[in-house]
Amino acid sequence: MADRKRVLSGMRPTGRLHLGNLHGALENWIRLQDQYECFYFVADWHALTTDYASPGNIGENSREMVLDWLSAGLDPRRSTIFVQSQIKEHAELYLLLAMITPLAWLERNPTYKEQQQQLEHKDLGTYGFLGYPVLQAADIIIYRANGVPVGKDQLPHIELTREIARRFNYLYKSEIFPEPDGLLTEAPVLPGLDGRKMSKSYGNCIFITDSGKDIAEKISRMMTDPQRVRRNDPGNPEVCPVFAYHKLYSSASEIEEIAHGCRSAGIGCVECKKILIRNVAARLAPVRERRAKFESDPDGLRDIIAAGNARAAREASATMELVRRAIGI
To answer: Rounded to whole angstroms, how far apart are CA atoms 277 and 280?
Structure first.
């Protein structure tokens, strides 16, 4: 793996992952294992930027999330899986980068005000919330990552990371940090059970480790084309949340048949959902089986995380030696 370029990404620990997480990020992480040297981390310090007043679930949520990563197909033999807070060098580099990052760079961050509006019930007027892009930059460049898999909404953060890396290299006449590229991932938009964005806060999720019974119950009550009131009404599959799932879980012939049947009223919503239930349950069954295996071996799980932490710590320590030398402290 030494000649491969390196990618890094992380997720905030919010507990079990849903299908939006699986198709929006995790499947891409799994694919990247074949092409890159991969570092994936639990962003538990980042969770504190919005949940600093109620951190009690972060530890358990971290464990649940790593279990889902492994169950979905992240391979600890091909990826370094670690916990951000266990690598204290992140905090040291964050402090040093904070000294050189202009305040205006943070205030212009497009997601800063957006998240304040979306989470207006929380007090986000903190230095940690304003400065979290600097911590994010430290997370990335401490491993001298060449790329970061992101969606379009995260590209401004990657550009800020590039600017911070460039500024450090310029100020301290070094070439320690490469400027990472955003590896843009075109993730399918997967609606929740009610047609809105899939989110735990909306209670509209299908989780990747849901049982067959849970999958059947949830899909059975999914929203469909709101204009199709009766069984013999023609529908429009392109506005139906259920059809969005068929595009991911059903065969090409099934998708064609369902689309035609919906438009001609040749197939009803109940029948359409039964096909989807069967396909989703079949696809997720191996994930549940792998998770059960990992859950039955808690020592093995701890060993995987400990090994990832040790590998990440070695890389971070080596980088910080160079950083201290460049600054002269």
So the answer is: 5
| Residue 150, φ and ψ in degrees, nearest 5 | -145, 165
Residue pair 219/241 in contact (Cβ under 8 Å)? The answer is no
86, 309 contact by CB (below 8 A): yes
Portion of the chain with pLDDT greater than 90, in percent: 80
Residue 169: count other Cβ atoms within 10 Å of its Cβ. 17
Q: Is the full-model pTM beyond 0.90? A: yes
Percent of the chain surpassing pLDDT 70:
96
Of residues 72, 94, 144, the one with CA closest to residue 314: 144
The secondary structure of the chain in percent helix, strand, coil, rounded to multiples of 5, reads 60, 10, 30
Report whether pLDDT(119) > 70: no
Given a contact cutoff of 8 angstroms between Cβ atoms, the answer to whether 309 and 75 are in contact is no
Encode pLDDT of 167-216 as tens digits.
999 999 999 999 999 998 777 778 999 999 898 888 999 999 999 999 99
Q: Are residue 177 and residue 51 in the same domain, yes or no? A: yes
Answer left, alpha or beta for residue 148, where phi above 0 means left and psi between -120 and 50 means alpha.
Answer: beta
| The one-letter amino acid at 170 | Y
Residue type, 209: T
Same domain? For 10 and 56 the reply is yes
Residue 202 lies in a domain: no
CB 22 within 8 A of CB 72: yes
**Amino acid letter for position 177:** F
208/69 Cα distance (integer angstroms): 10
Instruction: Please work out, in degrees rounded to the nearest 5, the angle formed at the alpha carbon of residue 271 by the alpha carbons of 268 and 273.
Output: 105
The distance from CA 68 to its chain's CA centroid, rounded to whole angstroms, is 12
Question: d(Cα 165, Cα 140) in Å, to the nearest integer?
Answer: 10
Domain of 152 in residue numbering reads as 6-190+298-327
Q: Are residues 11 and 120 in the same domain?
A: yes
Pairing of strands 37-42, 6-11: parallel
CA dihedral (284, 285, 289, 290) in degrees, to 10, reads -30
